[in-house]
Amino acid sequence: MVILWILIAIFATQLAPHDPHKGNLFKRLAPPAWMKGGEARSLLGTDHMGRDILSRIIYGSRISILIGAVVVFVTTTIGIFFGLVAGFYGGKLDALISRTVDVLMAFPYLVFAIGMMAVMGPGMLNLMLALIYKEWDTVCRVVRGEVLAIKKIEYIDAARTVGIKNARIMFGEILPNVMSPVIVVSTLRVATFIIMEASLSFLGLGVQPPTPAWGSMVSEGRSFIFGFWWISTFPGLAILTLVMGINLLGEGLRDTLDPRLKE
Q1: What is the reported pLDDT for 10?
Q2: Distance from first CA to last CA of the chain, Å, rounded?
Q3: What is the pLDDT of residue 262?
């Protein structure tokens, strides 16, 4: 499912049957092709502005996957760095980083993101920044815990004995051994970011119209849900399938990379 959505996002220009921004008021609220009054040219029907829903879902996949991938990459990088520093050096530096993480984790994620978006204003860049500001704390805590266990192992003492510098020990010896849980956590967090993006777009604080985003598409269909259910239902199903696919991928990676599950 994940590969399918990635391919759809990459080849959106070739796959989309219509311009996702172009509407036709004479074709507004057209039902899916298999329903009475539906047309083959609009397989999943049209919205209240006559825009093709299938085309908008296809282009919307780019937004969800891009935001999820970028935010995960940046937050994972930041979290790995601070987690390594906190776990390896300990002391006051560890206390400072750990208390910062505790403060960030005390805020409900959605409430924190809504507050950040209210300050910075809506938009795709601000949305990614709002997600990045807080989410590095999860990876940081995972890495710190792993480092605290690994730095006591004999080969780390051997590296210190032969004069290897701390930076090389952290990034050359410890980092490769903490990547398995980081990969699993980061994969699962992609799904969280996609849901967060959809939630903020649904509230009007994320990606702004006319850019097709799944959350805003669901929001636009709220007023028509009883008579024209397809406007909200199909973007919602797109979110469901992508998030479910990522969660299943994360669980598979966990089963593969965690040696404790193989015993």
Answers
A1: 93
A2: 29
A3: 53
Please provide the size of the chain in residues.
263
Residue 46 region, left (φ>0) first, then alpha (ψ -120 to 50), else beta?
beta
Tally the domains of the chain: 1
pTM: 0.85
Q: Which domain holds residue 68?
A: 2-262
CATH of the domain at 151: 1.10.3720.10
- Asked whether the CA dihedral 239, 241, 247, 250 is positive or negative, the reply is negative
The pLDDT of residue 160? 79
Q: What CA–CA distance (Å, rounded) separates 196 from 193?
A: 5
Tell me the Cα Rg of the chain: 22
Residue-by-residue DSSP string for the chain: -HHHHHHHHHTHHHH-SS-TT---GGGTTPPPTTSTT--TTSTT-B-TT--BHHHHHHHHHHHHHHHHHHHHHHHHHHHHHHHHHHHHH-HHHHHHHHHHHHHHHHS-HHHHHHHHHHHH-SSHHHHHHHHHHHHHHHHHHHHHHHHHHHTTSHHHHHHHHTT--HHHIIIIIIHHHHHHHHHHHHHHHHHHHHHHHHHHHHTTSSSPTTS--HHHHHHHTGGGTTT-THHHHHHHHHHHHHHHHHHHHHHHHHHHH-GGGG-
CA 195 to chain centre: 7
